[in-house]
Amino acid sequence: MRFKQTETPLLAAMQHYIQDGVIPFHTPGHKQGKGMHSTLEKLIGKDALALDLALIEELDDFYEPYGCIKDAQDLAAQLYGADHSFFVINGTTGGIYAMILATAGPGEKIIIPRNAHRSIISGIILSGAIPIFMQPEVDNELGMAVGVAPETVEATVIEHPDAKAVLVINPTYYGVATDLKKIVEIIHKHEMVVLVDEAHGPHLRFSSRLPIQAIDAGADICAQSSHKIIGALTQSSLVHCREGRIRVPHLKAMLQLTQSSSPNYIMLASLDVARMQMAVEGSKLIEQAIDLANWTRQEINKIPRLYCFGAEKIGNPGVFDMDPTKITVTVKGLGLTGAEAEKILRHEYKVQAELSDLYNVLFLITLGDGQYEVDMLVAALADMAAKYAGAYDFSVFESCVNTCHPIAPQGILSPRDALFGNTCMVPFEQSAGMVCAEIVTFYPPGIPVLCPGEGITQEIIDYCQLLKQGGMHISGPEDCTLKTIKVVDEYGENILSNR
Ligand SMILES: Cc1ncc(COP(=O)(O)O)c(C=O)c1O
Predict the structure, then answer these.
(1) Residue 196 Cα, ligand 1 centroid: separation in angstroms?
(2) C-alpha of residue 398 to centroid of ligand 1, in Å
(3) Which end of the chain is more exposed for a tag (fewer CB within 10 A), N or C?
(4) Is 174 in the pocket of ligand 1 (CB under 6 A)?
């Protein structure tokens, strides 16, 4: 290794270029801020704008790195224990596209969890692969999907021995991790590639109190949102891989396919510096965040009618481990929906959550938080809990989530063919026997009931009507009342002008 973990070779090269006083006859057009409108120039600041550089010889080549970008990526690989790491400038979304494109081509099978993030479905649409879905376990008390059990993975790979890859989430948005090591062993035993959506896991390597990270569990490729949890700028992510089961030049080619030829150097530098920060003080910072989050969880659980799940869930189906820095507050005891609680917290207490669903509000505790922030959060939650006693009776939702189970529909077309086929809107009640051309998801539990390319059955229509009557929130379809649904129009009549 040419550089030490305490160094930032990419940032150093950028600073050297600026300090050299070069006159830039290259992009970006604002020329270090001089051509930018003063409103924006003042806001961003001259120093930052000078760092908005371009691909010139001494700043390396983003697609085929040989200099400072390669040095920075090599340091990331060393820190994360990967054979190779790559900087990604369109988030983990871009990383997921590349890893799917690199492993499952048109008509080839890829096994994924049914509660996959939309970037995974989009990656499959881009590649033309055929998704084989695995059902995650559901925690009815929390009203959410958790991890996919190793037994489910094993049964699916046995049923589909021709699948090219299996994609696993580690951990979920809410911090729940499945038994990744066991799952990797099962998948590799069946000669398939393991891909991991580790958007919420760029900090896992820095504490033994966190779930194992994908590369350490033996995964072949993973993508991490360095911007979500550690100190990189928004949209800056890392892809790590292990040699052996994948062709690294092919993965590189797919990363080129999915990324801009004009990378933002400030974002790239933020990945270089975030890596250095984690190498130098990552363990200390992450341990502090865990302590802070554990204290916060304890205090929230003292507030009547609120619940913040923790280690007591470990051992339940699909819950092998958890990331305690994710604070999920279940507010249904107040008779408020998560969305209502999120709005109250934002507008009455100036506290903004990461997201909410029907039962829960999620707060992220990271290396950017301190005692003041968590004190304010706990005080706001306590005040809200004392002040609000909403009118919702959650037993209607609960009986629905607990009693109805999604029925796995049959895949008729690839999501790509369904999306690019002729489509039309039909009354949902009359859609049995047709091929769905969009995603339909109910919250809770957030698992798609229908995906593009899947056959609609009367059973599915009845199930959806039940969830609708139960007042579940519908997400995904163009008509979010689900009175009508977009289907593949095999006769080419009533074609929607959607392309
Ligand atoms: C589970 C999961 N995977 C992938 C992504 C996409 O990550 P990014 O926003 O970095 O593109 C997200 C984003 O929220 C996510 O929650």
Answers:
(1) 12
(2) 28
(3) C
(4) no
Contact 147, 318 (CB under 8 A): yes
388 Cα: distance to centroid of ligand 1 (angstroms): 33
379: left (phi over 0), alpha (psi -120 to 50) or beta: alpha
CA of 351 to the centre of ligand 1 (A): 22
Distances (CA, A) of 31 to 28, 34, 60, 334: 6, 6, 19, 55
In a shared domain, residues 322 and 269 = no
pLDDT in tens, 285-337: 999 999 999 999 999 999 999 999 999 999 999 999 999 999 999 999 999 98
**Each residue's pLDDT tens digit, 134-147:** 999 999 899 889 99
Q: Is 197 in the pocket of ligand 1 (CB under 6 A)?
A: yes
Helix axis angle, 68-80 to 9-19, nearest 10°: 150
How far apart are the CA of 199 and the centre of ligand 1, in A? 5
To test the pocket of ligand 1, the residue of 88, 89, 93, 172 to mutate (highest count of ligand atoms within 8 Å of its CB) is 93
Give the residues of the chain that fall short of pLDDT 50.
494-499
Which ranges constitute the DSSP H helices of 365-471?
Answer: 371-387, 395-403, 415-420, 458-469
Are residues 268 and 346 located together in one domain of the fold? Answer: no
Does residue 260 sit in the same domain as residue 191?
Answer: yes
The residue out of 251, 279, 307 marking a domain boundary is 279
Which DSSP category does 236 fall into? -
3-state helix, strand, coil in the chain (%, to 5): 40, 15, 45
- Indicate whether residue 91 lines ligand 1 (CB < 6 A): yes
State whether 75 and 158 are in the same domain.
yes
Is the Cβ atom of 117 under 6 angstroms away from ligand 1? yes
- Rounded to 5°, angle at Cα 155 from 451 and 133: 10
What's the domain range around 19?
9-279
Same domain for 275 and 298, yes or no, is no
User: Does one domain contain both 188 and 78?
Assistant: yes
95 CA closest ligand 1 atom index = 11
Q: What's the domain count of the chain?
A: 3
pTM score of the predicted model: 0.93
- Please report whether residue 496 resides in a domain: no
Q: Are 490 and 423 in contact (CB under 8 A)?
A: no
Q: Compute the distance between CA of residue 206 and CA of residue 298 in angstroms, rounded to an integer.
A: 23
Do 346 and 380 lie in a common domain? yes
